[in-house]
């Protein structure tokens, strides 16, 4: 029985000691439990390094938090301690919430200033403190943007700890305001954690403060607290910033739509100018096209055979017509010019013998200069074909600098357009200028759009510049403008085209058909009507006693009835040879 009495007495004494202990008094006052108080008096090495942090947040009526943190580093403080603040957090689907942390300073336990450096990482702010040899530190700062009206009340929401560089054994947070809290919550752990913190309360039955406790916070872990207050008790609202996204960067607002519309006036103005410039050709067609829609022969020459000879409208040669119509010198223009030079007696086209399944080849023979003046580009084309020789096979063209010589022919043909005053400027250079300007505008629009997308919400307006640049680039093909004289000649050539597409061979006397229809053929190549006039020419040649053409010679078994197929094959082969030089793909 005495042992039981002794045990009961010991228990009573132990209970009395517990009630009289300082910890019990603190608990009675509502202070949160302390993990350090449970440690034995004799600490192991790990306990000597234990860090604690006591955070006090005073919330003013204006919604500004004035913070003071009392850090204790134990008996073995680190050389440096990093305290991280979370300054940008998600708010809603389109915005982030911004917390402005300012006035950061620190002193040690003796009141001496501690060197503090900050590192802004966008979403977080790292505060580095030199804690070498310092057992305590007091960190002070101010936070704006932590208060926001929510529903029927006001909430103070703040990530009290955004991260530590060392494990902290105990973190306490006390939020004090002019009015008592109505509700509170907290989460702890890794960012966006939903795990509740170690404990939280409102200061006992008096409920005058919000208090939170989190133990054993590893580096990088956070402590997020929310305290609710009555509506209107504390002023202030959240600071929000719109998050970047493609949708937000290209937001269509009345302002961006207005700017977009204004910028689109540029391509519209260019198109209007193009319509006016091209309208010159349309006006000429209405008044001048009929002048070319007639038999292109001249019977005024008193020479042999009744004086009938071919006379194209405005004395325009095939290469000139092709360039005038589509405003660019191309493969068809050169092919038609070669045939025209043969018809006019400057060269002979000879179809070489070939086996049934072998490829057909032709030989061009240079003829003594007839009494027929050559234009500049025609003379250069003859030189490009023959150079220092008098004969050349079609299959051998493309060698010995032929591409470079052909490029000079093309440039001379463009210069001829200006010399004839059909264009104010060379069409190829005019196209290149406008295409270059369009590309430059497009690139500028791309750069502007990217810059606006990164730094503003008005990237939609930059699309108008891109569209304008693309419109100018495409419109460059229509920018070469014919002069009034060029438009008249253009109308006459289209009248000539109408004649060739519908003319009756009976319009020319039989004895002149071979010579006149031969002159038609190069123009038919330009107008893509070679099949019809090759057949007509072959039929006209069959009526001639010579049964042949002076400028096209076939192999021994060849007949004039084969001419239509032969000239089509020749034109197709020559077009391929010229295209293979790549001059007409790279030069404009």
UniProtKB/TrEMBL annotation:
Keyword Transmembrane helix applies: yes
Pfam families to which the protein is assigned, alphabetical: DUF2207_C (PF20990)
InterPro entries given in the database record: YciQ-like_C
Ranges where the Predicted membrane protein YciQ-like C-terminal domain occurs: 311-535
TM segment ranges: 257-277, 434-454, 460-479
Keywords associated with the record: Membrane, Signal, Transmembrane, Transmembrane helix
Chain segments carrying region Disordered: 286-309
Leader sequence residues: 1-27
Keyword Transmembrane: yes
Annotated protein name in UniProt: DUF2207 domain-containing protein
Organism of this sequence: Streptomonospora arabica
Lineage, opening ranks: Bacteria, Bacillati, Actinomycetota, Actinomycetes, Streptosporangiales
């Amino acid at each position: 029985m005495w042992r039981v009495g002794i045990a009961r007495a010991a228990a009573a004494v132990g209970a009395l000691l517990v009630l009289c202990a300082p910890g019990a008094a603190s608990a009675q006052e509502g202070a949160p439990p302390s993990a350090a108080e449970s440690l034995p008096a004799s600490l192991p090495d790990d306990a000597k390094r234990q860090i604690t942090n006591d955070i006090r947040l005073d919330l003013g009526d204006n919604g500004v938090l004035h913070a003071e943190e009392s850090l204790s580093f134990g008996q073995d403080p680190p050389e440096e301690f990093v305290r991280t603040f979370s300054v940008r957090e998600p708010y809603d689907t389109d915005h982030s919430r911004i917390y402005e942390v300012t006035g950061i300073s620190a002193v040690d336990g003796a009141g001496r200033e501690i060197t503090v450096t900050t590192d802004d990482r966008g979403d977080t702010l790292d505060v580095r403190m030199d804690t070498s040899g310092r057992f305590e530190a007091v960190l002070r700062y101010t936070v704006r943007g932590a208060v926001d009206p929510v529903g029927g009340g006001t909430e103070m929401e703040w990530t009290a700890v955004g991260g530590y560089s060392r494990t902290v054994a105990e973190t306490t947070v006390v939020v004090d305001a002019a009015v008592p809290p109505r509700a509170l919550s907290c989460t702890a752990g890794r960012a966006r954690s939903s795990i509740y913190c170690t404990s939280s309360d409102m200061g006992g039955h008096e409920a005058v403060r919000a208090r939170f406790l989190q133990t054993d916070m590893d580096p990088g872990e956070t402590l997020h607290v929310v305290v609710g207050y009555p509506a209107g008790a504390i002023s202030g609202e959240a600071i929000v910033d719109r998050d970047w996204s493609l949708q937000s960067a290209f937001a269509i607002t009345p302002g961006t739509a207005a700017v977009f519309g204004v910028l689109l006036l540029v391509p519209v103005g260019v198109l209007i100018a193009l319509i006016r410039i091209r309208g010159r050709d349309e006006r000429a067609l209405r008044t001048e096209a009929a002048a070319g829609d007639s038999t292109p022969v001249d019977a005024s020459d008193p020479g042999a055979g009744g004086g009938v000879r071919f006379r194209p409208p405005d004395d325009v040669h095939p290469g000139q017509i092709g360039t005038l119509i589509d405003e660019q010198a191309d493969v068809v223009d050169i092919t038609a010019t070669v045939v025209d030079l043969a018809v006019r007696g400057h060269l002979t086209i000879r179809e070489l013998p070939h086996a049934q399944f072998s490829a057909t080849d032709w030989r061009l023979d240079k003829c003594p200069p007839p009494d027929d003046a050559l234009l500049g580009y025609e003379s250069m084309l003859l030189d490009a074909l023959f150079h220092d020789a008098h004969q050349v096979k079609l299959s051998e063209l493309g060698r010995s600098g032929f591409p470079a010589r052909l490029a000079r022919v093309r440039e001379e043909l463009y210069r001829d357009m200006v010399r004839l005053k059909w264009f104010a400027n060379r069409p190829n250079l005019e196209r290149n200028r406008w295409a270059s300007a369009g590309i430059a505008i497009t690139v500028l629009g791309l750069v502007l759009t990217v810059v606006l997308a990164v730094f503003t919400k008005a990237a939609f307006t930059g699309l108008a510049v891109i569209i304008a640049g693309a419109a100018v680039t495409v419109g460059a093909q229509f920018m070469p403008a014919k002069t009034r004289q060029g438009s008249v000649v253009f109308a006459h050539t289209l009248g000539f085209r109408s004649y060739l597409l519908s003319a009756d061979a009976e319009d020319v006397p039989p004895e002149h058909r071979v010579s006149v229809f031969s002159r038609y053929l190069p123009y038919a190549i330009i107008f893509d009507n070679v099949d019809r006039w090759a057949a007509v020419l072959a039929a006209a040649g069959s009526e001639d006693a010579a049964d042949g053409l002076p400028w096209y010679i076939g192999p021994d078994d060849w007949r004039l009835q084969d001419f239509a197929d032969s000239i089509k094959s020749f034109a197709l082969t020559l077009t391929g040879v010229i295209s293979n030089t790549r001059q007409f793909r790279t030069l404009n």
